[in-house]
Amino acid sequence: MNKGVCVVVGVGPGNGAAIASQFSANGYQVALCARNQRKLNDIAATIKGSRPFGYDVRDPEAAPKVFAQIRQQLGSIDVLVYNAGAGAFANIDDATLADFQSAWEVNCRGLFLAVKEVLPDMRAAGAGHIIAIGATASIKGGAHFVPFASAKAGQRGLVQSLARYLWPENIHVSYVILDGIVNLPRTRQLMPDKLDEFFMEPFRIAESVYFLTQQDKQAWTFELDLRPYAEKW
Asked: Which segments within 66-170 are labelled E, that is strand?
């Protein structure tokens, strides 16, 4: 059964691919968006009902073109999952203006432009879901997280404003805070002594993201914190 179209922005081999797979398994056509077209094509080959779309969220002129292609090939958009995230981990002495600007472009401006593109479809349908994937840095700025924390805090504020404005239109906007290290080959290599339960499994994160789209509007979630039970918080 075709439930509609889900766009996942920021698709890599971890959370992005897992979220796309979850929506595909539940009957959605899925648009996979990321900068690296070759890797995107490889991921799309493993997910039924998905199509890859090269998309650099740092390019403000790319959004209208990419979303027009998605709409033309798959139809109107019902769900947007914004998983794109970037930012240098540096203190104020070491961070550069380029670091600061780049983090803002990906986390804030990119989300702003993507939402602008999907809103007409959701308003025409009278319903929709917008989910942004955030981080603990959005509510807790570490000393060495100046570019990343400031951008994520801005992103969280943007999403909260969107939720307060769009919920009355039956468009569910929510923010998922990931507090932990995602289980990826590179993170396991960096932390070889950590036990399995220390890491967050992408497919478990994807299950929770999909759950947000199944809630009744009388009990919608705005902010969802996800962390492994072993995480200190």
From this structure: 79-82, 128-135
Residue type, position 73, single letter: Q
**Phi-psi region at 215: left, alpha or beta (left = phi > 0; alpha = psi -120 to 50):** beta
pLDDT band at residue 15 using 50, 70 and 90 as cut-offs: very high
Cβ within 8 Å of residue 111, ≥6 positions away? 82, 84, 132, 155, 158, 159
Pick from 122, 103, 89: which is nearest to 7 by CA? 122
pLDDT for residue 200: 78
* Cα distance between residue 228 and residue 162, in whole Å: 28
Q: Which domains does the chain have, with CATH numbers?
A: 4-226 (3.40.50.720)
Which of 141, 140, 146 has the alpha carbon at shortest distance from 88?
146
Q: Per residue in 210-226, pLDDT tens?
A: 999 999 999 999 999 99
Return the H-helix or E-strand segment holding 208.
Answer: helix 202-212
